[in-house]
């Protein structure tokens, strides 16, 4: 099975961009996942590979969940603490990764992951979670998929990423190749093999600053990945975005989804 090698500081330079420029998961999606998983106020939710804590903060804010957020990046955990403070909720933060899943975390009702499962040893992670998630609980993989982008800024980004960040771009292409087992296959081979998906489709309008910020929030084109090519990359990206959208506006249709995985 092909995996992406673990790199603890992969997202070190993205923290400042992630929460501000990534499209958030809709509150309606959080509500529906909580309802389907029978989440009750005070239930323990683990936000694994939490980044700046979009999911964990949302579950604490909307559902009153007791949330633990784990990430290897101290910069990301600082964003979690700041975001939780702004939202007026308590979130317990822990520096670590999927390799640190143990009984000290406590029993869980849900383990939620937002675009982070692909960085993990997926079978080992699911095996560890099987020991922590209570009966009736679930693993929930959150994702967003671009349905439409006008103009197509991703088509602009791809060749630039190949030029300015070839090694990181190779990791991204690996996860899109036939050699990469989809998450659904990993779940079906685990105790969490009863799968359902909930999706919410939304429309957004973004400007060039939003697109540039989102690009810098990606590990393949982060300031860290680009290194001394970052300024040249940004100038090329901005020029091509402006040429594609002289008014500076980009319309996107995005499906945000939660893949719920229950035991049989």
TrEMBL record:
InterPro entries membership: Diverse_substrate_MTase (IPR051052), Methyltransf_25 (IPR041698), SAM-dependent_MTases_sf (IPR029063)
Family matches, as PANTHER family: METHYLTRANSF_11 DOMAIN-CONTAINING PROTEIN, METHYLTRANSFERASE TYPE 11 DOMAIN-CONTAINING PROTEIN
Protein name, UniProt field: Methyltransferase domain-containing protein
Keywords, comma-separated and alphabetical: Methyltransferase, Transferase
Residues in coiled coil: none
GO molecular function annotation: methyltransferase activity
Methyltransferase domain boundaries: 45-137
Superkingdom of the organism of origin: Bacteria
SUPFAM superfamilies listed in its UniProt record: S-adenosyl-L-methionine-dependent methyltransferases
Higher taxonomy: Bacteria, Pseudomonadati, Pseudomonadota, Alphaproteobacteria, Hyphomicrobiales
Gene Ontology biological-process entries: methylation
Alphabetized Pfam families for the sequence: Methyltransf_25 (PF13649)
């Amino acid at each position: 099975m092909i995996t992406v090698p673990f790199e603890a500081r992969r997202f070190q330079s993205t923290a400042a961009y992630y929460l501000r420029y990534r499209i958030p998961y809709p509150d309606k999606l959080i509500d529906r996942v909580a309802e389907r998983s029978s989440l009750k106020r005070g239930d323990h939710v683990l936000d694994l590979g939490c980044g700046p804590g979009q999911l964990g903060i949302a579950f604490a804010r909307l559902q009153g969940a007791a949330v633990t957020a784990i990430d290897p990046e101290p910069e990301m955990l600082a964003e979690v603490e700041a975001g939780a403070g702004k939202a007026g909720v308590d979130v317990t933060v822990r520096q670590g990764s999927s390799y640190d899943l143990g009984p000290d975390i406590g029993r869980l009702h849900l383990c939620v992951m937002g675009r982070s499962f692909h960085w993990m040893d997926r079978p080992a992670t699911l095996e560890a979670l099987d020991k922590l998630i209570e009966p009736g609980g679930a693993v929930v993989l959150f994702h967003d998929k671009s349905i439409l982008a006008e103009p197509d800024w991703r088509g602009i980004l791809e060749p630039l990423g190949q030029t300015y960040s070839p090694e990181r771009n190779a990791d991204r292409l690996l996860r899109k190749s036939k050699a990469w087992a989809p998450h659904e296959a990993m779940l079906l081979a685990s105790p969490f093999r009863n799968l359902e998906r909930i999706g919410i489709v939304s429309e957004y309008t973004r400007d060039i600053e939003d697109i540039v910020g989102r690009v810098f929030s990606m590990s393949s084109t982060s300031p860290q990945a680009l290194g001394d090519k970052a300024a040249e990359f940004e100038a090329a990206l901005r020029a091509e975005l402006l040429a594609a959208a002289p008014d500076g506006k980009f319309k996107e249709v995005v499906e945000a989804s939660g893949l719920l995985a229950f035991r049989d």
